[in-house]
Write a structure and sequence with these properties.
The structure is a homodimer of 120-residue chains.
Chain A (H helix, E strand, L loop, with lengths): L12 H10 L3 H8 L4 E2 H7 L5 H13 L3 E6 L5 E6 L1 H33 L2
Antiparallel strand pairs in A: 1-3, 2-3
Chain A binds a DNA duplex (30 and 30 nucleotides) through helix 3 and helix 4.
DNA sequence: CTCGACAGTAACCAAAGGTTACCGAGTACT
DNA sequence: AGTACTCGGTAACCTTTGGTTACTGTCGAG
């Protein structure tokens, strides 16, 4: 018996969605866009350490899945603006909770890690 | 100026923690362990599609970071049990929210994806 | 007539993840 | 005595994802 949305089943679409969220930069991009509209370079500067190629890939995926809107202005130099769709905005809250957890528990995690590395 | 826990800064430890959570199988393992104690094979069967090698890696990382406890019983055939630590349990709620989001919004995401693929 | 701005792309390289086969110790069966 | 089976992995190998560096096109400013 298969539940309607079982993220543990690799064939279930909700697992596909979860995999997408787990892609390396997806979360950061959604969090960075929060409720602003940002241009490509602004986004790249905001998110430390992301390569342009990968940022492009991530944004294209997010656009395809209806989480991000991409608006191109026919100007020179080119201007492209990214913003969250309504669907994308609905993801901010759960993702924000994870971010918050990370910022709250960094200390405990790093301490555990050092303890583990000592013991080796 | 660097905020104390800025997940956007690649040098900030909280970013390291966020990257760990974003690793492909971390979330699923934490959710699978929920509040049970599971053996290696049980975990592998519960989480569809995970290779034993990668499950081992993931579990070792989670153990190192103090999220998972690993107990080995000197029996034959061997028995190894995994469970969440207190810290690990504190991650269930934020992660559960993401899982819930995924299960709720699968439809919208898949619809957007089909629309995008049609338009090509 | 050359320079710079932006939003990428191209070519190449490194790292993470996946696949299949196999191991060792002891117990149960024949 | 020999064989089969259990579990929690590991070993060797391959593929996919992510990362780096350099480069492009277009147009306005100097």
């Amino acid at each position: 018996m298969v539940r309607k949305g079982d993220a543990f089943d690799p064939n279930c679409p909700s697992r596909v969605v979860l995999d997408r969220i787990a892609e390396k930069w997806t979360g950061l991009v959604v969090l960075a866009l929060n409720d602003e509209t940002l241009r490509f370079t602004q986004l790249r500067d905001r998110i430390g350490g992301v390569a342009p190629k990968v940022l492009t890939q991530t944004l294209r995926s997010l656009e395809r899945d209806g989480l991000v809107r991409r608006r191109v202005y026919a100007e020179v130099p080119p201007r492209v603006e990214y913003s969250l769709t309504r669907l994308g905005r609905s993801l901010r809250e759960p993702l924000g909770a994870v971010q918050h957890w990370a910022e709250q528990h960094v200390g405990a995690v790093m301490a555990a890690r050092e303890r583990a590395d000592q013991a080796s």
